[in-house]
Specification:
The protein is α/β, with parallel strands linked by helices. The protein is built from twelve helices and twelve strands.
Length: 377
């Protein structure tokens, strides 16, 4: 089996597993307790806060642990909306966001908020001028993802962040796909909130984090005890949080080497496929995209049928949550990709374990499957 679906999920790094093991076994204390077992658990949480903060270039106290990216995104949209409802009820986002942004935004619309969904260009890029023009007197939040999960296209977050600051509007980015793949310094990006998902960067599923800039108040999504400085109630999941912290530390250490190596492998995969299938179309920006993401379309074909011919290859036809659907993805639809091209989309995403031999074998399998299906003119 060859796995090329790292944008969907990643295996847990062995060092992450090792860091978690003591807290699965003997170090099972509740961080809220004042005896030694609880104190050690609390210190482990503090360390994990610091590890994530170092990767993001912020303070440890600005990190809130969550159950994953979906919770982090919901926490921002609903928390800001409720906290600033007397100031304004307008939110700006884009048509290519993950459902964890789009669906909370729709929920808010159904409950009296006004949401603008901005278009993107043919590469899946948001125009900062479109963001600026969409701002109203009652705009309280702008949310634009850092990098798209399908195309890998990287958005002009820094420029949008500056526009947000000029207008005194809070700015959030969903960085689920970019963490550990490209630099994600919150100060460089000019963001007030940033969402992190563990299972996209070799940590377990079911854990994530949210960066909240100091001085910003939001209504908690989960009420209860005073954990996470009162911003997210519930006894902390020390096991998972330690795993996420370790994964973030590893991501920072590997980032430079990872980027250079993965770009080389991704381009090798691309070149080998188009050498035999020159009609293959690249979806997304050719340069402004994640180093690991190759989203190709084979015109006149159905991506799912191509992958069915290669049971040994783990890849996707789009976002994982839409993988079994035969309709064009909402991302490609927003990019105005034709149905003829969009239906033939196959997303190939590489990861740290990916080898040159795997890339070569995957390219061979894909070319063979496409030729068997018969690519139309």
């Amino acid at each position: 089996m060859i796995y090329l679906d790292y944008n969907a999920t990643t295996p847990i790094d062995l060092d992450v597993t090792a860091a978690m093991m003591p807290f699965i076994r003997e170090e099972f204390g509740n961080p809220s307790n004042s005896y030694s077992l609880g104190i050690r658990a609390k210190k482990a949480l503090e360390k994990a806060h610091g590890q994530i903060a170092k990767l993001l270039g912020c303070e440890a106290g600005e990190i809130v642990f969550t159950s994953g990216g979906s919770e982090s995104n919901n926490m921002v949209l609903k928390g800001v909306a409720l906290n600033l409802r007397d100031k304004g009820r307008h939110i700006i986002t884009t048509k290519i966001e993950h459902p964890a942004i789009i669906n909370p935004a729709i929920f808010l619309m159904e409950n009296g908020w006004d949401v603008t969904f901005l278009p993107v260009d043919k590469y899946g890029l948001t125009d900062p001028d479109e963001v600026k023009n969409a701002i109203k007197k009652d705009t309280v939040l702008i949310s634009v993802m850092h990098a798209n999960n399908e195309t890998g296209t990287i958005q002009p977050i820094q420029e949008i962040g500056r526009i947000s600051r000029e207008h005194g509007i809070l700015f959030h980015t969903d960085a689920a796909q970019s963490i550990g793949k490209i630099k994600t310094d919150v100060n460089d990006l000019c963001v007030d909130f940033l969402s992190v998902t563990g299972h996209k960067l070799y940590a377990p599923k079911g854990v994530g984090a949210l960066y909240i800039r100091n001085g910003i108040e939001i209504v908690p999504l989960i009420h209860g005890g005073g954990q996470e400085k009162g911003r997210r109630a519930g006894t902390e999941n020390v096991i998972m949080n330690v795993g996420l912290g370790t994964a973030c530390e590893l991501a920072g250490k590997h980032l430079e080497d990872y980027t250079a190596r993965i770009i080389t492998l991704r381009d090798r995969l691309h070149n080998k496929i188009i050498a035999d299938v020159p009609k293959a179309v690249l979806n997304g920006h050719p340069e402004k995209r994640l180093p690991n993401t190759l989203y190709l379309s084979f015109p006149g074909m159905i991506g799912e049928k191509i992958l069915e011919k290669i049971p040994e290859l783990c890849a996707s036809t789009g976002a994982a949550c839409e993988d079994r659907s035969v309709k064009i993805s909402h991302v490609l639809a927003a990019m105005e990709v034709s149905r003829e091209i969009g239906m033939g989309a196959v997303r190939l995403t590489l990861g740290r374990p990916t080898t040159e031999d795997e890339v070569d074998q995957a390219a061979e399998w894909i070319v063979k499957a496409v030729k068997e299906e018969g690519l139309r003119d």
